[in-house]
């Protein structure tokens, strides 16, 4: 398969936006904050990037092995009607994963014979492994299987499989019933809105076109791995993909941003492990985990300053010539956060209460040991935050 598949079939997602268009809605705020020039034309917003950022974007796409033209964009025409087609999620007896496979399979066959005897049936499937991400479709007349960009999620693959089935399985003047085991994809389509993923909006547009051609489309959720031969066949075809299978370059912008976010967090974690704070504090839950435990941004900032020892104290202010006396009036020691929380006699009664609630046995501990107890779980963190108000710190 030396040729790319797009040479045989027109792309399922014609591109309406360029690099500074399809991703513009997600990136314009960052550009504005960084001082890039924004300018408007009717119905569109553009950002004129400086060369440094333009080169950064080029490198990002090169590292992702894709180009902007491969990004799934919004439909050519807007469509936001939530009643785009019939979607059956929990309407039939067999749509219950708790049932035995034999019951699901037999009841499915009976249901199809009664409710959809004249529909052309198509089964679709999206698959993702450590090697490939693929889409597949199967009908009584033909089948397909393609590799897609590995960055795409299973959700995106499931939706793309349905889109491709609508393109390839053209049966004029015949109603279509599409079977899918992706409850999340069909639920998202059923709850279509302006904020739906672009690939869902694209699927809705394709279904809308078919409706204008007087062709009804229904989507039916079938429990996966439940013995339904249609879905089992589509699943098997999707897993047969190899390095020699036809490749399609589509990629969802949501999956790109998800990947970049994970990459950013990974880089942040690696930088922390190489920093002085790793040696000072040791391992503790990441900031995203901690932020779920705290009640508001004030507590977020408080904990961040406690961890980094940048909370306001006379000892810290004195280092920058902002306070005349760095010494504690009670203990005559440097009045920094370590002294206040660990040793100051003024707070001995409060410290005894915290130690007991945090299950700290020894009276003499180091700063990193205190943090390891305070940040072990949500309950300990809340206890720690609530008792900090009894210390004279800002």
How does this structure look, described?
Residues 116-243 form the RNase H type-1 domain. Pfam families: RNase_H. GO terms for molecular function: nucleic acid binding; RNA-DNA hybrid ribonuclease activity. InterPro entries: RNaseH-like_sf (IPR012337), RNaseH_domain (IPR002156), RNaseH_sf (IPR036397). With 394 residues, the chain is of the alpha/beta class. The chain has 2 domains: 86-250, Ribonuclease H-like superfamily/Ribonuclease H (Nucleotidyltransferase, domain 5, 2-Layer Sandwich); 276-389, no CATH class. The protein has helices at residues 19-22, 24-33, 51-63, 101-115, 154-168, 183-190, 198-212, 229-239, 253-273, 276-281, 287-293, 297-308, 314-319, 337-342, 348-357, 367-374, 378-387; strands spanning 37-41, 44-48, 86-88, 120-128, 133-138, 143-148, 176-180, 217-221, 247-248. The strands form 2 sheets. Strands 3-8-7-4-5-6-9 form a 7-stranded mixed β-sheet, sandwiched between helices. The chain has a two-stranded antiparallel ribbon with strand order 1-2. Strand 1 (37-41) and strand 2 (44-48) form a beta hairpin. The longest helix has 21 residues, at 253-273. It is elongated, with a radius of gyration of 29 Å. The termini are far apart. Mean pLDDT is 82; it is low at 1-41.
């Amino acid at each position: 398969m030396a040729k790319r598949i797009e040479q045989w079939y027109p792309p399922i997602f014609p591109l309406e936006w360029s690099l500074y268009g399809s991703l513009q809605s997600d990136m314009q705020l960052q550009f504005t904050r960084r001082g890039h020039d924004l300018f408007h034309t009717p119905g569109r917003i553009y950002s004129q990037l400086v060369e440094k950022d333009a080169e950064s974007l080029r490198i990002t796409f090169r590292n992702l092995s894709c180009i902007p033209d491969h990004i799934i964009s919004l439909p050519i025409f807007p469509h936001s009607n939530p009643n785009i087609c019939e979607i059956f999620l929990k309407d039939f007896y067999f749509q219950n994963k708790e049932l035995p496979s034999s019951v699901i399979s037999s009841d499915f066959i009976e249901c199809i014979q009664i409710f959809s005897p004249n529909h052309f049936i198509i089964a679709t499937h999206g698959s993702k492994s450590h090697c490939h991400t693929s889409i597949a479709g199967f009908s009584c007349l033909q089948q397909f299987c393609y590799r897609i960009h590995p960055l795409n999620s299973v959700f995106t693959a499931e939706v793309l499989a349905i889109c491709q089935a609508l393109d390839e399985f053209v049966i004029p003047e015949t109603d279509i019933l599409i079977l899918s085991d992706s409850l999340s994809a069909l639920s998202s389509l059923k709850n279509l809105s302006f904020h739906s993923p672009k690939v869902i909006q694209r699927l809705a547009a394709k279904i809308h076109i078919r409706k204008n051609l007087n062709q009804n489309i229904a989507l039916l959720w079938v429990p996966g791995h439940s013995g339904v031969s249609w879905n089992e066949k589509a699943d098997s075809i999707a897993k047969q993909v190899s390095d020699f299978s036809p490749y399609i370059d589509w990629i969802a912008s949501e999956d790109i941003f998800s990947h970049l976010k994970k990459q950013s967090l990974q880089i942040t974690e690696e930088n922390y492990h190489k920093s002085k704070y790793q040696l000072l504090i040791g391992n503790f839950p990441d900031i995203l985990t901690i932020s779920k435990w705290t009640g508001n941004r004030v507590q977020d900032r408080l904990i961040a300053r406690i961890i980094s020892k940048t909370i306001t104290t006379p000892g810290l202010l004195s280092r920058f010539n902002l306070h005349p006396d760095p010494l504690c009036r009670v203990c005559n020691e440097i009045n920094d956060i370590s002294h206040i929380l660990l040793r100051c006699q003024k707070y001995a009664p409060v410290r005894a209460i915290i130690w007991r609630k945090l299950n700290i046995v020894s009276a003499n501990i180091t700063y990193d040991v205190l943090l390891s107890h305070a940040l072990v779980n949500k309950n300990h963190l809340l206890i720690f935050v609530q008792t900090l108000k009894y210390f004279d710190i800002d």
